[in-house]
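Can't paste images in this forum, so I'm doing it all in text. The chain is below; anyone willing to post the predicted structure tokens underneath?
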Amino acid sequence: MLEVKLIIFDCDGVLVDSEVISNQVLAQLLTAEGLPTTLVEARRDYQGLLLADVVNEAQAKLGRPLPPDWLACYERERAAAFRLRLRPVRGAADAVRLITDAGLGACVASQGKLSKTGLSLHLTGLDRLFPESARFSAESVARGKPWPDLFLHAAKTMGADPAQCVVVEDTPSGVTAAVSAGMRALGYAADSNEHALRDAGAEVIYSLDQLPKLLGLG
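Text version of the structure:
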């Protein structure tokens, strides 16, 4: 790899503690539609997918379409739950500040819509660390994770060669996307399957406090 220039963070589960909240809402709404789903099952089957793929997977299991307004209802319920319960991941703000103070770039690249990322960063106070120009969504590229398109788009926009980028992810699909993009992948395993992250090609970390040392900053 070349000298590190850019750190690309996934948002959900890496910067903000949202995965349990999102998947609890998802499990409740799918169960209400006649597809009994636990939190564990929601995380196993849907975490890391684009929402369009979540809908397709759920409809295949149900054997029928979800109501036309189901997705909008899910997004409303999720946003309401975020406003009540969302918190930053421990150490996220300090890690980003150390990175940017050292002169490295930092950005967010998420499967979710930019509006969702903006809300999450705002609610957790992390929006001050990531201007809108440093936020990227899979909606802006042809293919989301596990394809490399999103990370390559973020790197190009931020002026970094892929080999100069380090990606921090908490899902195997995100790690796969990073590796496919030719980037170093760090798998944040505080609330994820470390074996799956490692099998996808990540160096596993358990705390964002580890980031500065891994990046040669301390």
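The CA atoms of residues 81 and 202 lie 31 Å apart. The domain at 6-17+87-214 is CATH 3.40.50.1000 (Rossmann fold).
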